[in-house]
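Table S5 (text form). Sequence records supplied for joint modeling of the two-component complex.
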Amino acid sequence: MQRQNRHILLGLILFLAAFPAVVLNVESISHYLDIMIFVGIYSLIAMGLSLLMGYAGQISLGHAAFFGIGAYSSGILNSSLSMSPWLAMAVGVLITATVAYVVGVPSLKLKGHYLAMATLGFGMIVSIFLNEEVELTGGPSGFSDISGLSIAGLSLDSELRYYILVWSIVLVILVFSLNIIDSRIGRALRSLHDSEVAADAMGIETARYKVAIFVLSAVYASIAGSLYTHYMGFLSPSSFDLFFSIKLVMMVVVGGMHSIWGALLGTWLLTFLGNEWLHVFQDFDILVYGAILLAIVMFLPEGLVGILGKVRSLLRLKKEART
Amino acid sequence: MEKISLTGQIIQYLFTGVTVGSIYALVGLGFNIIYNVTEIINFAQGEFVMLGGLLMVFCSTTLHLALPVAFVLAVAMVTLVGALMERLTINPLKNATVLTLIIVTIAVSILLKGIAMFVWGKDPYVLPPFSGNKPIFLMGAAVQTQTLWVLGLTLAVVVLMTFFFKKTRYGKAMLACADNSEAARLVGIKVKTMVLISFALSAAIGAVAGAAVTPISLMEYDRGALLALKGFGAAVLGGLGSFYGAVVAGLLLGVIESFCAGFVSSGYKDAVALLVLLLVLFLKPSGLFGNVEASKIKKF
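The corresponding structure-token record, covering 623 residues in total, follows.
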């Protein structure tokens, strides 16, 4: 891992450790811990999407579907078949990976707009399925009685415990993803982003890498779905619709498409916006989302981390000017 | 109540299918116009339809304008929205990647959807049929007169567009951009103007579709995405870029969907159209009438 990444990682861990201590002691923001759990869950999906979009250059407008498949597999297996939550989560990952592979192989032969539309269509089909298969999924009214998680007899029933679990998983997957980016695979992906033809010519099996990263990002989403299910205790299809897929893309784009840190930043910002700061707008938050997304792509194509990068290079220039 | 005969049922479904199919065809045409000039797929295409419908309701029910006036005004306003979209979001972008273009048009679609919700709220709006509620009976099936309006308007749009692209200077210039924008620029065609016209034109066509279909299916703020996806299905099934293909494929898609809703399951009717879209994308992305060679040259 690069030194710079190690520093940011250390900073993040310190922040995460201090966060509950601060938040739980201030009455007016004590519910931030709950929001932070969702930030963690969504971060998992956003990191996967960042690998897919920012590094491999492939778009998916259907990632809410993988989140949904993970969530519903966990929920149904746990509630209807009384399978243990952790096993249900693992089976959910297997199911999601299989679906992602089956959809990914033909989809990723498509480029640009075609891929966007194909993934969009896939996401909508899954959403329709969740609404229509009432006997299996509970239909539009959803599904409850899903048990919470526990580790070695310790039930994760408090927000603080769940916060620790979720963010531990996020950190593990973050380190894993940072290592992927720095590895041969990461370099192959980046070359693929710049020019698929050139990558092919150099002997990189572009098709295999693209599908692999697609499946991996779906697995991240599936784990996130399971964590979501066991935290919420109930599911409804509206949490996995097209708008959520687009919000996921927004998280990655707003934070900065070409950096995994950007995905985390974007998720953090948009989740707090959605759950807290945009509440004054009530239903009209969608208007604000559209405006933010448009402003970012038009004026800040590098996303929010792009600003940080610019500030840094500016500071460095000043320093050099002085010496 | 008298039981409707099977033939009556089939004719009924056929008419329903052709009606919604016309809408898909019009949305597909809108996609094709922009795609042909710019190779952009405009994800806000469905929002033009939604705006067309809601503005038609506004002009005729709220402002009490006469039907033809309301129709022209609604279409004109959406055309303006299309032109503004191009000037404010597409035109300023330089050397944008496909990913950026996709996200920009998605952002515009969210924005338009949000504005529509802000203005009209979440409830669906009704609009009385253009020429009364009395259905026409045809071989045991009741056909709404609005269906004929939809078909007529679709036909009018197709005829007008054919005329525009084959006979007028601007139409020919746009086709030249589609063929090779660099060469078009060299012979003095203002490519940027053509891009502007393509957005305005496809917005207008979307608005016609929205205004025509609202009396049949109601209209609300979040209808755009599904309409866009199915319209894109029509455009791809017909071969992206082919006007004639989009019309045939749109009608076909509508009929398949309607028969599925009638004979199999109404809940899955939307999924069927999407499944057809996926199958075409996976098996034959050049579509039924598309030119395989030409689609290989296209950048995206």
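Note: The CA atoms of residues 122 and 298 of chain B lie 40 Å apart.
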